[in-house]
Each structure stands twice: as structure tokens, then as C-alpha cells.
Amino acid sequence: IMCASAKYNTRGPALIPRMKTKHRIYYITLFSIVLLGLIATGMFQFWPHSIESSSDWTVEKRSVHDVPVVKLPADSPIPERGDLSCRMHTCFDVYRCGFNPKNKIKVYIYSLKKYVDEFGAAVSNTISREYNELLTAISDSEFYTDDVNRACLFVPSIDVLNQNVLRIKETAQALAQLSRWDRGTNHLLFNMLPGGPPDYNTALDVPRDRALLAGGGFSTWTYRQGYDVSIPVYSPLSAEVDLPERGPGPRRYFILSSQMALHPEYQSELEALQAENGESVLILDKCTNLSDGVPAVRKRCYKNQVFDYPQVLQESTFCVVLRGARLGQAVLSDVLQAGCVPVIIADSYILPFSEVLDWKRASVVIPEEKMPEMYSILQSIPQRQIEEMQRQARWFWEAYFRSMKAIALATLQIINDRIYPYAAISYEEWNDPPAVKWSSVSNPLFLPLIPPQSQGFTAVVLTYDRVESLFRVITEVSKVPSLSKLLVVWNNQNKNPPEDSLWPKIRVPLKVVRTAENKLSNRFFPYDEIETEAVLAIDDDIIMLTSDELQFGYEVWREFPDRLVGYPGRLHLWDHEMNKWKYESEWTNEVSMVLTGAAFYHKYFNYLYTYKMPGDIKNWVDAHMNCEDIAMNFLVANVTGKSVIKVTPRKKFKCPECTAIDGLSLDQTHMVERSECINKFASVFGTMPLKVVEHRADPVLYKDDFPEKLKSFPNIGSL
Amino acid sequence: MQTRKKYIFLTFLASWLLIFFFGGDQLRRFAFFSGSKAEARRNWPRWTDRSLLKNFADPEELQRDGDPSLLSPRERRAAWLSVYKSSRCRMETCFDFSRCERNGFKVFTYPRERDQPISASYSKILTSIERSRYYTPKPEEACLFILSIDTLDRDHLSAQYIRDVDEKIRGFPLWNGGRNHLIFNLYSGTWPNYTGDLGFDIGQAILAKASFDTESFRPGFDVSIPLFSKDHPQHGGERGWLYQDSVPPKKKYLLVFKGKRYLTGIGSGTRNALHHIHNGKDIISLTTCKHGKDWQKHKDTRCDKDNVNYEKFDYQELLHNSTFCIVPRGRRLGSFRFLEALQAACIPVLLSDGWELPFAEAIDWSKAAVVGSERLLLQIPSAVRCIHPERVLALQQQTQFLWDAYFSSVDKIVHTTLEIIKDRLSPPRSRSRFLWNTLPGGLLVLPDFSTHPGDFPFYYLQHGSSPSKKFTAFIRVVSQAGSLSQPILRLIQAVSGSQYCAQILVLWSCEQPPPPSGKWPQTTVPLTIIQGRRKLSDRFFPYTAIQTDAVLSLDEHTSLSTSEVDFAFVVWRSFPERIVGFPALSHFWDPEQGRWGYTSKWTNELSIVLTAAAFYHRYPRGEGQLGRGIRPHPAPLPCPLPRYYHSLFTKYLPAGLRELVDGLAACEDILMNVLVAAVTKLPPIKVTQRKQHKDTVPQQVGCMDGGMGTPPSGECSPSPPRSPAAKVKGTAGAAGSRRFSQRQDCLNQLVDWFGYMPLVSSQLRLDPVLFKDQVSVLRKKYPRLEKP
What GO molecular function annotation could you give as one example from this UniProt entry (chain B) (predicted)? Predict the structure, then answer.
């Protein structure tokens, strides 16, 4: 009811009423008034440069130090510890989110306050730079609402990113007194550094009852699958250092370790690896003799050699990410940024956003016990895959690690997808880098099905006024055994189709559809009358195809239901002199298109042509009254990534009394126009989707030395 | 007319004013209108001192996250073992990886005891494991153990409940606290709570259980399996019900449910509400109160009316004619309905909160099902209506793919479970989610071959890569007497003449050593000779020397021209996942004998393409002289084949099946065809073949099985299409007929192993575009293919 989804228009293109001349003057006057108004509006827009920018306009200007102070009494309630059994269906109040056509949750942010204890000592730093960025990002996003009553998710402004800088009990008390706390239901906390000495818990120690936790460094024992969100530990270097993406190819080192203060046991295992494999393994550590003023975080040393960090990460194919006291490490972000494939050695660690990200494509996870075998494990990965992992690693950083904004939005999206699963973002959208999204093809008809023969096909004949030829086509086509219905698209608005009694009597239902406008795209409209999957588009002058040829074409289509299966084939060529595409209809050894003057295809492509044709191609074709077939070839090839199938031998598609496709094709200007179409479409699609092949389909026994009467399709190729 | 104009004028004026007032932020900014701005959205403040805020952590602290006072990693891991047990088991604490390192992933099943009753389903599970390529009868080399005690039904009210399991288990010397054991379960707990309790202590064993709830599920350790009935087929399995893709989905109903309504007890909340969404038109949701013995006791006012309505619709009819099917929880979280809907291509709408979906570790259910919430039942109709037809099409196809890849038989369910566990043993050598959720599915993708999608023939399009531009020619030499014969020299010349040839490999399977390198012809491409064993399935061994995706398998006696090789290879590049070849056979069902047959006669269909086989070349020479024209098969011609299929052939199929192939003559190319058809569900591609000359290839005159009545002239006598297998007469045909019947046996044994007939028929052949057209030969690219 509230769906935004496309409704299938069953009636066909509508006719725009014509304007009557005598009223034109009034309309022109009215129009000019409106125009004047618009111009005036435009002037206002360009005028007020002195006025403050819009963002400042709606936002208060204050200092963090001016926020209200809240005193927490010592006996104010403390929430219960986090409930390990919480799941969305048990601890989350989904009724707050409601059903809405946008399928977006509403997120409310509590206003910032400074919490102090009874003695006036601050409970924590009011807010860190990162948490401020995160909240800003949420408030600027589509998820944000300032209406607490409409909110589905609540984000406290109490900063718990780093457990080390806060007082656990008092922070918990501060949470408990939030206006909508209600045992933490629908509250989301962000934490990146959980735990503290001596046990370093893998989840935030602040009691939080039912609140969701977006945490960096979950282990499999503290992570509540499907409830918590595992997030990265943000590395502030991301904002500081600009590492341009490095192309694929071999790098100087094979394995690199850049972490400081590793446990001596890990250290010795890494050193053993280095001793075994020499120069290809580089183990860096803290620099001991740096001159003053050089930030230690930006340098690493090996013996006396000094390296720039994180730049040095780009010199290696694999970069080790070992666990420290905590499981989540900020170095993971640096490694991904450098396009280095992380080798993650941290047993039980839940990788960031693992609910949606496929880390197998971007990293290598090695159990701690297997550290000594690391080198051989990594060597067994094929080079092509390594290059893809490098690209993938960089893409993960760009999309989900690079800023607090990216981290915040990915977290909210994950929660949003749980609440509106039917509108969730797909695996491909999460994981495919833009280059892959661009180059890969996901065929909408991907299931290998051979449709049952019994269904038959619907022949759609586009006609204008060549009634005699049309009737011949109808008679010929009706002889094909698998024909189940014949649809005549009457594209002539000035003339009525012949009376019912004059039409040829055929064994299958014949329907005539009258169109509102003489447009070529009417041929590809997904008429409700087409009940079969297979559609045979046929021109009203194609009378030379035999019944065997048509039936065979249908059988071939059944084996390739996701392709255009047609009779006359055409080719596109690159014209090196003119530096553009050229259309070719000569006797070539290759085909890349079939003409839809006689072609089988899936009805789904009608739907795509009518509703999903990229750019202005559809209107362009209708305006030029040409190239609808080339457009269809482009569309199908682009969406399936597959070539056309030309069936049966070459014929002269020419009849003496009509100007058939070939008749026209011989015309020079026609060829120029068709070439233009190809160039136009290629630029709209942004690529050349057509695939060139050197084969055509014939019956198994075609031209074999075998009695014709025993062949399924004897009458093929006769002129 | 005047009034109309006036109205139009007013409308325009009004719209002009509207534009002026609401025309954008910039307008409202104007001081004059600033009165209305008070209601602006209150965003997070831009603090004036935000650039002075401190970082959440000191950068150096972030990079030095170590604490020397902590336990050493080794000690920590040892300590874990004692802490994270039973309900907190994970692979790293409860599974002994070292057992799997020595012999790889091997699975042992406890010997079945006579007096031990075993249900049909559990017996199928055990059989599946024994049929798997991971099975081992030796416990000492096993990595994973499976009990022979039937643990499927742990409802102690059930007849199949086995008592005293704890005691029995403790008696097993191999039990070892359940370490490395896998326990299957379909039903746990009983009335009224139906908990996850199994009634015995599983210790550290992995649990593969149906109706798993997310709370007791140990992530990365347990496996959630689907509930399947006792009639679920052992192998093969029925295909899905989607025969055609229609957009929009032209089904009679949008959403259906027909099932029991629990009046009391667990699960009744959801089932009791289902009737609310029934609209009698496109949403049919019917419940009955009739179940159990005492339903009358709890009967409510709706029951009688519901029961009447209930009988009006047939469950199967609804299943066949609906786009979406509600799959609510029953007493337990999973139900048979789930697999039924999946098979019927009726997109499951799950209403089973807290259910860990089957194989969710591998399968992305959002691509095949709608995961609803029990609490939001009333939103389901509108949510489902809003799903775009294109997505419905994708969901429907995905249900079929998943059904066929992982669920349609007990074998598939069990093998998927095993593969998921195997993938955990070595994460770098495991399948990514992409591989699990894309055709042909994880079971047919061997991560030992590669984990890179670009290395598999079926992922080129989705992955955005293309098949290799070159091929490796692979020639197997068997019957050479130390020197090189003419045919093989000609063959090497012809192949190396192809512009697409990257390398030539010769597999030397003779007793004599190969001739020295000086004796081999000079070729433009590298020529390598490897020493082989003498086994028929050697042909498909995945030799590491093969460096291209495509392999052209050849026999020493193969005769072919460069243009045939070129054309076949160009065609293969368009169909990289299929077998592309020259001589074809066709299979058929022989109702008289009740078995499958095949024929190499000229038929209008084909389903097998010979992979350069012609086994008889490898027979001792004497047999080849049995008689004139006794050639049971058409000329052995080669075909380009993706390298991956060699791996699949050698590693996917269990050793027993490969032995069978080695034992039966020339079975290996039928097996290869069956295997590729099982992967692709598509027929092979036949390309046109040059007519053979009697004098150039004297042994290859016949084209009839068993050479029955083949005229000496070498002409092929036609036979009617689709005729049953030829009866073979005469002594001359004896050898051929034996081979023929062996191949028939082979086909039937393969069908038996797969559980269905994977072969698919095709009615077409691919020819060069201008093949036999009436144009000048000079215009044609492959004129040699037409030469008589």
C-alpha cells in the first residue's frame, strides 16, 4: 500500500493531450509569470553571500565547557551487568521502530552533560574528539531524529570509547539516570578500548544491562551474535596521514610486523620466522635513539634502520596484526589503509563488522598455535588472490575504517538491517569494492533452468499498416508447433486495424493491442497478454523463416533463456581511423548482435527495456525511430554479460515487395545512423557490453549426411 | 471556459507563492522570513572548541597495547582449556586440531552394534558419511568421530528415544570427553518446554542440531542443520519446483500458511495470531485446532469456524501457487515446512525468533528468505508486498539453488555439515561466503584447489574476470614402442600451430622410457614430458605443470587440424564452465530393461561429449585387430576443459568411484560428463567436426556401437533417432559389445551413485558463423572445417 515499488503499468504508454491553439496565449502569460517568480527566487539564492552558512544557522554555538553539570548522588542506581543472553528478540524493543516506507531507524542522541560525583570530581572526560565526531556524524545522517518520542535507538552522549579514562561505577550511574534508559533497552554504547589490567576483559566493564554494545575487541565469548556490533579500533593516524592507494604487484617485503611492545613469546616466534626466511620478513620495533621532537608513533626501527610509519606498511605484502593485551588493535586500520593484507593472529577475536564483512576476502586469519607455519601458509596463496585481497583491504578501510563517521554509519546500518531485514543491504553491496561492482555481472536470471517446452512462446508482431504482409507473417508463424499466442501491436493511430473477420484463422489466440503513440518501444512493452516466458519479436515483413527454423530457434532459446536468440546477426567493430564504433552487416565471421526483427528472448527483458533502460536511450530511440534492436542487444548483454546466439544459416532477409531490414541496411545513411546508435549507447552504458562470438547454433544433424526425414529440423537453411 | 481559465490562473499563482515561501533554505535565511526558523532541527552542536578536544586514547598507548604482567600467550591458551568448556566450547578450546594434521580431515563412524536400534534417518546419516570421501574405517587416523548410537530423537516420550546414552558413551574408549566428536540431533526436549536438553552429557562434542536457538548455539563450534523427515532421500534428491522465471511472479497467492494452531504451551503465541492476516484473497493463513488427543479440552470460539475453513484448501496446492510461505516456529524453532517451502520456491517468511538458521555460518539467508519477527506479524503482509518483483525473482532462484546444493538429500545435508567443520580447520584454505552462496555452491568448490574465484570456471562473470586466452595441450601416450610414430608427430604439429596454444604436455605412460629430447619435433611452444602411471583416470589428474585454465586433452592417435582446435577453443571461451567437444553421445531411458542406455548413433540430441577418450587405444594391440570396422566410438577428438574439473574429478569423487572407473573400460569420460553436468545443470556443447577420411585415420571408420553391420566403405549407416541400444550380433562385434555394455554399466552405476541422472540433453551444435553458407571460401575463417 505504502510501497514505493514499481507497479506494473498494464495499459501501455499514455497519450499527452494536445494543446489547443486558441488558449495558448493565456498559458504563455501564466508561464511567464511563473518564470519571473523562479528568476526572483534564483536571485535570492545568489544574493546573500554575507549571510552565515546554513550549518551554523541551525546549530547552537557553544563550548564544551559550557555544558550543564549533573551531580550524581553516591547512592544513585547502578544498572545490572550486561546480560549475555540478550538477543534482538529478547532485549530489544522493536515496537519503538515501527513500520515506515523508508525502512530507516530513528536515532536520538542525548544532549551533552558533564557528570560529577558528590564531591564535584568529574566522572570522565566530558567528550573525546572521536566521540564528538561520531555523534556529529550520526546527527548529520538520515538516521537522526531530535524527537525522543519517535526514536527507536538512543545514543548516550556519555563517552565510553576508552574504558581506561572513566570511572566505571559512576559512569554506570550516569547511564542509569538517562531519561529513557529503561534498563538500557534500545540504547547503543560505543566502546573501542575495553577492559583494563589485570584481566583485560574483552567487553566494556561498565554495567549496562540490556544496552547494545558496539565494541572493538570482542572475543567469541563476550560477543552476543546478532545483538552486539563488533567495530574497529579507530586509528587517529587515518586522519593524519595520507597514503595514496598503491597498485597491485610485488612488494619489497613478504611479511612485516610493525607492532610495538609485543609479548616476548610472539617476538621470539617472529624472529624465528625471520631467521628462517631472511630478508623477506621484516620485524620492526620501537626506535630507541630518536632525536627529540620526532613523534615515536610515526617511526619504527629495525636494528639501526629507521622507517616511517605507517608508510613502511605499503612496502609489504602481508602485515602481521597480533593481539596485545586486548584483541582489537588500532594497527589493523593502518594496515588496511596501506593496502597490506592483514595476517590476524588473535584467537577468538571477532573481526570488525564480521556480521556483514567477508574477511576471508581481505585478510588471513591464522591460529596462534600455527604461527610457526605462517610463512608457508601465506606462500600457498596465489598471487592473483593476494592482489585482490590488497584491493579489498584498502576498500574496507575506505568504506568502514577511515573515519569515526564511517564506523558510526556502518554500525547503524547493521542494526537497521536487523530491524528491517527485507530491506537489508546485500552481501555484494557491503563487500564488493567499486571496481568489482563495476566489472562484475550479476545475471538476474542466474539459475540454470531449461524452461519446459510445453509452455511455448508468444509471438509479438509490430505493425503499422502493411496488412497483407502482416497476414502472411501471421499465417507462417502460426504453423510453428510451440506457438502459444500471437500478439499484434498495432502502432498506427490514424487507421483502425482490419475487422475481426478479415484476420487469418489460426489455431492459437490472436490479440491486437492498439498503442497510443507510434513508438518503437511499444514493441518491447511487457504486455499482460504475454503469458509465456519466451517472446518472439518478429517484424511484419519477415516471411522467409520456415516453421522448422522458428521452432528450432525456440528450442535454442530454451537452452539459453537468458540470451537473445535471433536470426539475422550483426557485428560492431572498432574503426581505428575514426576512433569510434562502427556497425557492420556484411558477411562476417563474427556476430555480436541479433536483430529483433526476428528474435526470441525472455519476457523479463521487456520489463527491463521499459523500466530500467539506462540514461535517455529509450526516449532517444523513440525520437529517432531507429535502433531499438541495438538498444535491446546492449541491454541484455550488459545485464547478463553474455553473447547473443545466432541461429541457423545466413538468409537474405529481403522480399521483393517490402523494404525489410536488409533492404534498409544496404542504405548508406542507414549504416551511418546505426553506427551512431552504437557510439551513443556505448557512451551511455559507459562501456561496450556487446560480446563478439564466432559461432552460430545449428541443429545437431545440420548438413550431415543423413536422411532428411529423420532429422528433427530438416527444413533449415533453404532459401 | 472562463471559469476554468480563472482556476488555472489561480493555481499558477498559488504555486508561484508556494515556491517563493518554501523554495529552499536560502530563502528562509532571509531576515524578513526569519520568524519561521525557530522550528529548525536541533542537531548535535558544533562546539567552538571542538578542535581542542582530546583524543579518546593517547596515540602511543594505542600502538603499545601490551602488558608484560599478563600471562604468556601459551599459558593463556592453556588456561582457556580449563575455563571454556561444555557450553562455552569453541574450536580452539574443545577441538584437537592435531588429530587432523597427520591424515587430513578423516571421519570415522563407530561400528554399528547389532542390538542397537537405529532410526531410518540416522542410518542415512551414517551411510552418507561412509559414502563421503572423508570416511575412514580406521579410528587412529580419524579427525572426527561419529557415534553409532542414534541421537536424533531425544524426546524421552518418543518411541525412538534411546536410554542410558551416558553410560554407553562412557564405555567407549575413543570418547575422550567428547573431543572431536560430532553428534547429530533433530529433536530435543519434550512437552511442555521443548528445551535443548539432550538427556546426556555431550561434553566437548560438536553438536549438529536442528531447531538450534541462538542462545545455546556455540558460535563457530556447533552446526545448525535443517529438520528433515525420515523420507528424505539418501542421495540425489528431488529437484526444486521452479521451472521458469516469471516477472512479475504470476502466482495465485502472495502469502500462505496452513498448519496447526497451538491452543496452549510454547509456540502458541505465534501460531494463535496467524489467522489475523488471512484476507481470503491473496493472503491465505489457515489454522486448525485439531492436534493431539485432547484438543477439544482447550478449544476456543474460533476453532470450529477455523476447522471448516481449513479443509477448503490443500497444502500442496497452496505451496505450489504462492510467492511467499510463512514458516512459523512450531513447538520447536525449526519445522519441516522450511525445507518444503524452499523446494517449492515459495520464499520462506520466517517467524521463529531466536532460531539459528541452518548452516548460517555458510549460507546467507537474506538472499533466499525473509526473516520476519514473531512480534511484528501484522507488518508481514505489507512488508512482503513491498518487496520489488526483481528481488522476488532473485529470492526464488536462490531458494532453488540452496535447496539443490545443500538440502535436497541427506547426503548433501551431512556433507555440508562436514565441509563447514573442515573449513574451520584451516581458515586460510576455506571457502569465502561468496563461494558458499553462488552457484554451484560450496560442496562443488574445492578450497584445496584454490580459494580464488577467478580460478573456477563458473565465476568469471560475477567475478569480473575472463577465461584464459591460451590452453595447454595434454597428450597421453600409451602404446609407443620407444620411438615416435607419425600420428603423434602430426598431432604435435597441428596443436602447436594453434595461436591459442600455450604449452604442450606429454604424459608418457609406456614401459619404455621416452625418446631423448632431440627426437621430439621442434615446436614454437614449450613441450614438456612427464612420466605417468598406467591408470585410466590419469588423464584427469591435476598435474601442476598445467598452467592455463583450459586443458585440451588429447590421445596419441587423435587426428585433428589446427582450425578445429582453434574453433573449439574460441567456443569454449564463451562457455568456460561446460565441456566443449566434437563427437557426442546421447543418453536415454530404456523402459524395457529399466535402465539407462546411451547411443553414439546419429540422433537429434546429445548429452555427452567424448573427452578424447576412445579407450581402446590403450588396449593391447591384439584386440584392435579383431575385425574390420570394429570401432565402438566415433573418432576420438579432443575438447578443451577447464583445469578445475581435473581437480574435481580427482579430489571430489570418493576413491571407490574412481576405482570403479579405472575398472570399467572408458568410463572416465562418461564420468567427466556426468560430473560436469551435475555441477552446471547444463548440457555439453558440441562443435562441428570435420568429416574423417578413411585413409588418413584408418581405424576410425565406423560410427556405430559394436560396429554392427557397418559397411566396409566406412560410411555411417543411419539409424532412427532415439532408438534403443543396438543389439550386437556376430563375433566381430564381441569385443566392441563388451565395451559397450561396460560403458552402459558405467553410466548406470554413476547414476546410482549420484542418485539421479545429471545429464542434460541439447538439440544444437555450434558451427562457425558462415558454415556451409553460400559465400566464397575466401571470406570464411574456418574453411577447412567444411572440407568433405
Answer: glycosyltransferase activity
How close is the nearest chain B Cα to the Cα of A371, in Å?
Answer: 12
**Helices (H), ranges, A449-545:** 467-477
Which of A9, A294, A446 to substitute to test the interface with B, most B CBs within 10 Å? A446
How far apart (Å, rounded) are the C-alpha atoms in residues B444 and B412?
A: 11
3-state secondary structure of A652: coil
Residue B191 lies in a domain: yes
pLDDT digits (tens, 9 = 90+) for A216-233: 999 999 999 999 999 999
C-alpha cell at B235: 542421495
Same domain, B94 and B192: yes
Per-residue burial over A566-598, b = 16 or more CB atoms within 10 Å of its CB, e = otherwise: bbbbbbbeeeeeeeebbbbbeebbbbbbbbbbb
Residues A221, B90: C-beta atoms closer than 8 Å: yes
- Between the alpha carbon of residue B285 and those of residues B275, B315, B318, B324, the distances in Å are 6, 11, 10, 12
| Calpha distance A287→B63 (Å, rounded) | 13
Q: Which of A89, A556, A703 sits opposite B772 (nearest CB)?
A: A703
Residue B107 is which amino acid?
Answer: V
Q: What's the pLDDT tens digit per position in B303-313?
A: 888 888 888 89
| Domain membership of residue B192 as a residue range | 85-224
Residues B586, B599: contact at Cβ < 8 Å? yes
Mark yes or no for CB contact B464/A440 under 8 Å: yes
Residues of A in contact with B13 (CB under 8 A): 33
> What pLDDT score does B17 carry?
63
In chain A, residues with a C-beta closer than 8 Å to the C-beta of B79 are: none
Q: Which residues of B touch A456 (CB under 8 A)?
A: none
Q: Is the same domain home to B263 and B207?
A: no
- Burial pattern B750-773, b for ≥16 Cβ within 10 A else e, equals bbebbbbbbbbbbbbbbbbbbbbb
Collapsed DSSP state (helix, strand, coil) of residue A513: strand
Which of B54, B370, B767 has the CB atom closest to A696's CB atom?
Answer: B767
pLDDT at A57: 45
SS3 breakdown of chain B: % helix, strand, coil, rounded to 5? Answer: 40, 15, 50
B675 located within any domain: no
Q: Taking the model in full, what pTM does it have? A: 0.88
CATH of the domain at B319: 3.40.50.2000
Chain B neighbors of A525, CB-CB under 8 A: none
Q: Do B50 and A377 touch (CB under 8 A)?
A: no
Q: Is B31 a member of any domain?
A: no
pLDDT band (50, 70, 90) for residue B636:
very low
Our CA angle for B410, B416, B419, nearest 5°, is 140
Q: Quick check: B394 and A331 CB within 8 A?
A: no
Between A and B, how many CB-CB pairs are < 8 A? Answer: 448
CB distance B67–A197 less than 8 Å?
A: yes
Look at chain B and report how many structural domains it folds into. Answer: 2
**Are A41 and B602 an interchain contact pair (Cβ–Cβ within 8 Å)?**
no
On whether both B394 and B294 belong to a single domain, the answer is yes
Q: Determine contact, residues B387/A422, Cβ cutoff 8 Å.
A: yes
Q: Are B331 and B368 within one domain?
A: yes
Q: How far apart are the two ends of chain B, measured CA to CA in Å? A: 83
Radius of gyration of chain B (CA): 33
Write down all domains in chain A, each with its CATH number in brackets: 63-233+402-430 (no CATH), 237-400 (3.40.50.2000), 455-650+661-695 (3.90.550.10)
- Best of B56, B58, B247 to disrupt the A interface (most A CBs within 10 Å) is B56
N-terminal to C-terminal alpha carbon distance within chain A = 56
Residue showing cell 562434542: B205
Structural domain includes residue B281: yes
User: Is B257 in the same domain as B391?
Assistant: yes
Whether residues B274 and B394 share a domain: the answer is yes
